[in-house]
Fold these 3 entries.
Entry 1:
Amino acid sequence: MSSDNDIQKFLQVFFGSGDPSDIFFVNLKPPLHKRSWRKINHNIDCYLTPGRFAPEALTNTGGTVLEVAALPLDDVGSATVSKVTPEQARRLGAESAIIRTSKDNHHYWFKLSRPVLRTEWKAFRSVVDGIIGAKPDNPAPSMLFRAPFGRNSKRGNAVELIKLKDGDVLDVDAMLALAEPAAVSDSEQHGGTLQLNDPAGLMALIPNTIETREEWGNEICHQLWALTGGSEEGFKAYDDWSSWHKSYDADNTRKYWDSIHGVTTSGRELLVRAQRLDPEGYAAWMAREAAAMFDDGVELPVPLAPDEAKAGLTFTPYDWTEMCDVEPRDWLYGDLLIRGFISMTVAPGGAGKSSLIVAEALAQVTGTNLLGARVPKALRVALWNLEDPHIETKRKIQATAHRYKIRKADIGDRLFVDSGRDQRLVVAEMRQGKPVIVRPVIKALVEQIKLHKIDVIVIDPFVSCHELPENDNTAQDMIVKEWGRVAELGGCAVHLIDHTRKTPPGIEANTDSARGAKAKTDAARVVRVINRMTDKEGESFGVGNPRQHFYTLHDKANMTMPPPKDHREWFQLENVNMGNAAVRAGVGAGITTGDNVGVVVQWDPPAVTVLASAENYKKVVKFMDGKRWRSDGQAKMWVGNAIAKALEIKCHTTKKGREQINGIIDTWVGQGVWQIVEDFDDHRMTRDFIEIKGEVNDF
């Protein structure tokens, strides 16, 4: 085992400081720079990289390597990479340190006369490859190597620093002088500046979904710099494009662009990327550029052939994290809304969805449990009703606040309300027969979400936020996933409210009832469905006007365990008179009453409070006597028969009595003390049975 003193000497020799916390912060590949082993630890796998990252640019998904402080070589070979032998490594000179990573494998560390800049790295490594006569194991500047301490859990041995002495110092400038002259870029051929007429138009064709700083900077930025000769107009296009990314930083973007003083790329790859991603858009942009450039006698670089374009895919090693240390999901409202993801509520017209959304928004901004859903804290909510005028949403908000005794101070500055009649929100449209995301709108939306620190944004209804064909799966998948990017970039939950198609009377709506293409609900992580109370249910519950009642069910729950299939959450629209008759008196003659507004409140079916009591539950369980009771109302062993006999419901064979019994079954299943399970009967046929899941004192 390496001594702590020797380890500190190693860090001092190669990185200029013996303090691990200083070294590892800027020499750990993201997201490892936040790991707890940023100190000497001999019991776990520990790594660092010779490439120094910019500390201010480090994120969980990427970072920019500014320079390389040392040269390690690995003698571990693979099927696709040549093995570097000790003899080959020493063709560079005497190493300054050797780290034994396993019984037969070592890392050889060489000191450098000065750090190798990121822009010099490719040329420097080409010289190294030529001298040693082998290709080392991945020459990327961000390549991870084992630290001179810790364990190799795969091989079951300690990682040791077995040599540390004054070795040869590699002359970086002398080695760079041996590199082949870089190919002259197209921008240099045209006097150092190839001014594109519309670089922003080119970048608009390329969605910024880049996950690595390496690709973002070393590829995209350098290629655009080459195409624009590093002009200010080129920077503006790059800065605008960069702002779409969740890790965008204006200062770092400016510094990165200004740090480039020459490139070895022509920029053709950027043109190919745009052409591949949006062929029609690229053709139109190219035509505009050609018209402008040919007038000046300047030719555009010819794009690479399609087979020359590189996909740039890499596999990411899994970063093991102890289960208790995994970041938990950030649930914002019950099990419906989660930060960074899309949830969807699907409802028929006139069922009360907009009133429900208003009540939930007030629960969220006040941080109170108004409708039975947990709210972790007072949230900031943006409610955008694209269907109703602003005044109608105001009526719902004020009536709901009155019903729940919510005051202005309880809401503070956390609620934002907009109407599609005053301010359109169209984030996707058809252009020349092709679905296109309206990037300026998305950008402005994300900026507003970040500016006001929005936790939840509600779009009601979803169909009004785009102008794409509803039945086109490809188009609908594109727009819903774009909303997913909004959730991720804005760090908020996105709640999309959608309509159902018309369903026959008595048929319960579900996720598949959503109007249009199925790709919409497929892309959402949670889908909640609203159904009106049917006349039959109203009769069973003794409700005079069933149209004032509805229930919700979570029909799709990818981020949590789904509730029992018969679980329902019931609500009622309760009338609230706004008392604004005096205000309205001048509008029309004879108006003496204020506006009546339906406010959503929780509602428990009467069968729950009267018949499905804890005492009755005990009676029924006792009567069931451990036998296998069925959920099928046609079966001889229907559990309803046990309920009827245990509770002495004499009219259980009548329509009303049977509906009461079904209400009791639904209640106990919904509360989780009973569960409907599939099993084989005595004839090996698959049937649904009632299984008791909770003790009676759980009810």
Note: The mean pLDDT is 79.
Entry 2:
Amino acid sequence: MNLKSFPLIGALTGPATGIAEDAGAKAMKMLRVLAVGLAAVLLLWSSALAMGPAYKTDSELTQYPVIVIAAWDKAEMRPHTLVRGDVCEEGIWFLDRKRSWDDADKTLYYHVPHYRAIQPAFLEKYFAALGSSDPENAVPKLLSSDNHEVLTRVLRYLCGDVLPWPFGDGFASMYLNPPKRGNVLRSEAGAVKGLVGRDVGEVRFTAASVYAFLAGKDGVGFLRSLLKDADPNVRAVAMGTLALQRDGASIGAIAAAAQGVEDGWLGCQVIDAMAHWGDAGLIPALIPFLEIDSFAYQYGDELGIPAVQASKALYKLTGHWFPYDAAAAQQVWKEAAAVADLGKRKALLDRLLPEKECPLIAQLVGNPRYEPAKPPDGPATRMSTAATLPCTESTTKPKDVMATVRLRNASNRTVTIGALPSSVTQEWPSGSASRSTCPRPGAPAKEDFVDLRPGETTEVAVTLDDSFMLADPNDRKLALIYERNGRALGLKAWIGTVHAEFGPEWKQERKLEKVEQRWPNGNLKVVGQTMNGRPYGRWEYFNERGDRIKDVRYTGDDVGSSEYNPKYPSNKAVGARQPDVGLSRRTPYAAVAILLGASLFFWGRGMARAHAARQAGRGTEVPPGGRAGEVDQYGVSRFLTFQDFRFPDYPRSCVARFSPRISGESQ
């Protein structure tokens, strides 16, 4: 590892560290960065995002006792493909001292304590300012920098390390922000305003957001002027912040500023701000977004596409679904806005906009299969050629199932949609899956879209996960997502989510079979069931003694496996073989013979005793049916006659005298 001491290490670490002068020499001998720390750093610099330790701010990094300019020349690794982290280049390392996990090693090594503990070397002046004795004066001076990363870091620091709207929601608020906002330097609003006026590229809209946060109501006038800015992203920030502040005087200018805002993420944030305001005067500002199909995100069924979000916002304000055609939507609203009476306006919109959110009905048809679908025959039905284009050899895997979805135009107007959905999402109790479709090679063409007249259908082939097919039909959800409207081709295709149902023409065999395996001693080894030959539901596993040791849940809402303690009472011998209930197939007949013989025996003895009693003059009468009140030597208090004999009512205590095995079963 190559090291050199940080130029301002004394100011950053304080006199107590005592390592500034010999940091390089000691590091050459002792520095061993723990593998866990390096792995976290490599993950940080890669494009992958994963759950990690709590976020640490830049200011917190400067509190580590050792800060050096360093490079680690052993960072290459090969998990699947060669990865080379930025730690191979010179950077700022924030270190502490830690012992090895080997208890026998008493040496204190330099240690990378956090995934943010290695930073780019060009931030040296920034971290020096943060670590100075007066960072609140030193850091804002760096607003004069031309480096975009330095400017962004400074702007974040001015806001207490949490950037304001439109930043900080969703993933950023959970993993890329501290749990609590720090000190806010509102006095620096003027300096940030000056930064907005500079030519610093994409940093300008971030600076506009920070200025609005720092200035509050005092910044409304400047934000209104930004509604005419040449940068659409700066205009978008001005639109959203003024909408959040409910600035009614700027409604007209907000509508004009919306033209040309095409960034998907910013567009969705602005639309959300206007929808929360809920002023009908913002409808003209929402309509231009109906043709912006820039994809930003997807959270479940929520599509982060400005067109989709604008459609929902317009429905919230008017109660009607506008077409994805800005010119047509503006004309409809122009006519409706001219009607002052709200009741008559609603009636007009009911006539002009009778459509539902989704004009399509989707149903799965045919049989699940393991080969691509073929175009079906029949009138008014077309199979998209794009739907059957091969993508790669691995498109259809053995565990995947091909199926056909039929889409029908249920509206009273012609609807244009993509020949293929952009993606297909599946949900079932134990999982979910999303598959992107393979677009036709080359630039988009009109052949990638289809027009459906009212009542007309088209069919597309989709690939379904095998686990999805095994799940209970009532718990499965399938959706086709259309993200492209073809505006580059002059088209205004419908976009959104279509939920597919398993229709009456869908034919899927669901054959459930029980599976049972036993050890040579007869005890259970495995018990479970299969659906169409695939493991289904819960499977239990037992050792040779019949003790439950494991189970695996293949379907349901608790998919997984569990290990069991075989000595626990509820697991012990639950799979043990039960005792035989008979000696052979003739055992039932033998049992009947024994019972009949016993009946004859007791009947004969009872008759003999009754006769002897009469002869002795005791006067004891046996009641009708042969009952007597005494108990004989076998503990039987009821003597039977042939008239009493009813097999289901026969006393089981008598059976126990002759066949304990039968008794064990019956009791």
Note: Residues 49 and 193 are 33 Å apart (CA to CA).
Entry 3:
Amino acid sequence: MHDITEHKRANKELITRLFQQESIAELSQRALAGTELQVLMNDAVKLIAEGIEVEYCKILKLLPDGNSLLLLAGIGWKEGLVGSAIVAAGPDSQAGYTLLINEPVIVADFRTETRFNVPPLLQEHGIVSGMSVVISGKERTFGVLGAHTDKQRTFTRDDINFLRSAANVIGATIQRRGTEEELEESESRFKRIFNTTSASILEEDYSEVVKAIDALKARGVKDFRRYLDENPDFVSMAVQMVKILDVNNATLKLYGASSKSEMLGPLNNIFTPDSYKVFKEKLIAIAEGKGYFEAEIINKRLDGKPIELLMSCEIPSQHSEFTNILVSIFDITDRKKMEHELLKMHKLESLGVLAGGIAHDFNNVMTGVLGYITLAKIRAGSKSNVIEDLDSAEKACLRTKELTQQLITFSKGGAPVKRNISITELIKDSVTFTLSGSNAKPVFNIPDDLWPTEVDEGQISQVINNLILNADQAMPEGGIIEVGCENVVIGEGNAITLNKGRYVKMTVSDQGCGIAREHLDKIFDPFFTTKQRGSGLGLSTVYSIIKRHNGYITVESELGKGTTFDIYLPASE
């Protein structure tokens, strides 16, 4: 009889242990499956109560004040208590004592317990026996897990281990969910910043590039600059490896994209020949283990228009972590234009001083030559052949004096004699006169309410004549020359080095052959010309006159599509 009873007891313990193990496995599986945390805790108290064979089970959450715990989940308790009942967290309660010693607390009989008082919650339900363990994570304590019965009970070591295992699963789940929530919040915060910041940001995948660089290192490549100089195809191949994964709204605006899908993919969609040179330096920085890379780069918008950028990024130190990098870019196109304009102004001023001095001395020499030619003509008398030669020499000298006068105008501007006028008629008369007998036709777009300007009519007429003549010569077969004006207000911090205020903007556009990009910065230089015939002083003089009027001139051109000049003249108050 004794042997049968012992066998039944052992068998019952085995069944209970197996159920407890299965319960822990099921609880863990539900946690990993992403079961909502409150649902998971409700399931946990049911499984624990069944596994230990008790009527009551509870999960107490330690509140932020550290002095009390909330009955967050439970089974067996009176209706309305779960979610509202508060238990003291001090050492005079079982839960508080459990937190204090951070070890399992087993009570065989609360009626004889001397370590702490019986909490009102347990007294109200007639609890006699129970045990409790701490629910904790790696960084903080979350609360207490307890199992209770209204019968006197001796809990086994398996029961204690089962309760601790359940607490570990709950604690790990809370920790992971908290981390996930923090990560989600961090990602959400990052996305908000990413999409709302005024700085342009691109997320780029460099993982394949790093693998390729590591493969080269394994082959013994040490001097990557030399390797890339000798193997330029590697740079092109690496560009194809990099993928744009994400961009923010500022980037879409910068590149003229209407959606992210237009920007995602290989870098060559936004690269220019200059971009490859900078990308090569970036590859070298990655290969050499640099932590940061910054450079000025010229990319292109989706419409093909070049943009000058300041690009920077941090390079992860460990290649094992090197997957995606964030690249910040700032549009410095306007800043570079301003720098180029200031440099051009200083250069032209220096050239002007030189050209003016030479022209003045040369003009004096030519005056003397003309005088001697006049004397020679008097002494030649009626010798017609000699007179004809001297007339030709005189004409050549006069043309030379005109050239030197242009140089003087360029260098000193010829101090404009200004008068307050509406330049509408001046523009139309000058354009019409210059195009007399030409195949090119003007189209005017000038508003009736154009602001008056204070200008030297002769000099501004010279400006218009030069620009229209250039446009006409750019279209030998004829075409349309658009001449327009508009009132504009320039604010502070503009990119065209003008004082803030009101201006009249005049635009001259042709449909001619255009100007090569490498020539654009030189067209205002004296003696620079791409024509077979010409002095190279026309646009230099235009620039000088506009500057003397406290104005500004810009040019945009593309080969095969034409050229546009914009002139800003201060409007009269």
Note: The first helix runs from residue 2 to 32.
